[in-house]
Design brief:
With about 120 residues, this protein is mainly beta.
């Protein structure tokens, strides 16, 4: 069993900063890709940022230069540092991880989501 727990969401004013954290626990042999996704009301879930085990990153065009994703392989965590937040960033943010378990299965796992609301 694998669990992901996000934290750090909340209400912030436009131009402010927020850091989201995600910790993965359970039967973990190795975590491959990790990422942050978001879903606004009435919208499809979209990729915000992802990072490979080796540290290669990919960002949505809308957040480049404002958001930074980083991970700690030893602690099984991935964080998203968000700066210069805009009202358009308002969404539920979900943590995702591809986990290879001790049961020799690889799967994608999701956190429960954390709400980020940016006021103008």
């Amino acid at each position: 069993q694998v669990q992901l727990v996000e934290s750090g969401g909340g209400l912030v004013q436009a131009g402010g900063s927020l850091r989201l954290s995600c910790v993965v626990s359970g039967s973990i042999f190795r975590i491959n890709d990790m990422g942050w996704y978001r879903q606004a009301p009435g919208k499809q879930r979209e990729l915000v940022a992802k990072i490979t085990r080796a540290g290669s990153t990919d960002y949505a065009d809308s957040v480049k230069g404002r958001f930074t994703i980083f991970r700690d392989n030893a602690k099984h965590t991935v964080d998203l540092q968000m700066s210069s937040l805009e009202p358009e960033d308002t969404a539920i943010y979900y943590c995702n991880a591809e986990v290879f378990t001790f049961q020799l299965r690889t799967g994608n796992y999701w956190g429960q989501g954390t709400q980020v609301t940016v006021s103008s």
